[in-house]
Amino acid sequence: MAVMTSSARRPLLNRRLAEFGTTIFAEMSALALSTGSINLGQGFPDTDGPEEIREAAVRALRDGRGNQYPPGPGVPELRTAITAHQERRYGLGFDPDTEVLVTAGATEAIAAALLALLEPGDEVIALEPYYDSYAACIAMAGGTRVPVTLRPHEETHDGVVHRRFRLDLDELRDAVTDNTRLLLINTPHNPTGTVLTREELTAIAELAVERDLLVITDEVYEHLVFDEAEHIPLATLPGMRGRTVTIGSAGKSFSFTGWKVGWVTAAPDLVTAVRSAKQFLTYVASGPFQYAVAEALALPDTYFEAFRADMRAKRDLLGAGLAEAGFTVFRPAGTYFITTDIRPLGESDGFAFCRALPERAGVVAIPNAVFYDHRDVGAPFVRFAFCKQTSVLEEAVKRLKTLAG
User: Helix (H, G, I), strand (E, B), or coil: what is residue 193?
Assistant: First the structure.
């Protein structure tokens, strides 16, 4: 029975959040703990990032830098490092004083941007499946989410089958109405591992300009793109510099997810709007870690190349094991997640499959349906994280292969 207040006689939880219970990540992580299973569900590394960056945080703590409230927009060293990173890698020039905002991770950046830019009733188009906080933040802002579904697609080149999730550009155009306020784009894309192509991004940019839409683009996996895939920031395309809020994160690029350092880069008026909401959320966070991340962003290209190569090898290890276990595998072009189809195993309900998997194989995964409004479309897909030690992945593969029997 729902708990009611004595005066208003209504449920305690704000009705906008009524559909959101405990996250699937909490449920599956608890299941991993209780069963002693290998947790390939939640996307966090099981080893720390570069030692010199960890030492930079220790040095900041000892030197008294960031132990008190840092400046609201973020410490100058980090804001300058973010602009230098964007300029060096993408040719994007930003003013560190007016066009950068440091946040408590990308999650706060998403929340602050949506709270700042939406009015009740505004429609937000998001690529489905989507990171679960998108739906909750749109709801908190009073917006209406409009999912456009990435659909599985298969091509054969030189006898090799390539599987990816693809954006239907016609479906995207048809989803835009007079009530559409903004597009919420994620590339490289979690959970499917899709990296949007230049052609797809160009079409998105043209649509945004034509319909005068704002765009929030979540690019936290920018340094995790594999093979021939290329990360292209949407803000680099014609007409997008002044209408795009770009979100980045140190956690995904440097394997310090607990530090919660994210950022927004955008034109001054957009940054001012996002900051107006952000200042009433955490106000500031992660003081000493901001100084360390400033040093991390200045690491040489060899760091990013080695990081990418390590994750690519882990992707290939887990992907091959999942295929041998009987899954249909969508080889990701980016992120550190692999989406699989469980129907070749005689299964079709991802929730039931993931809840039974710890007992069956001693491994935890996440059902992709939790990332969909159209739950039936996502039902047969399951996500595995490969940002773990090689020995852990090898043991997971060994356990998963028992499913093939």
Answer: coil
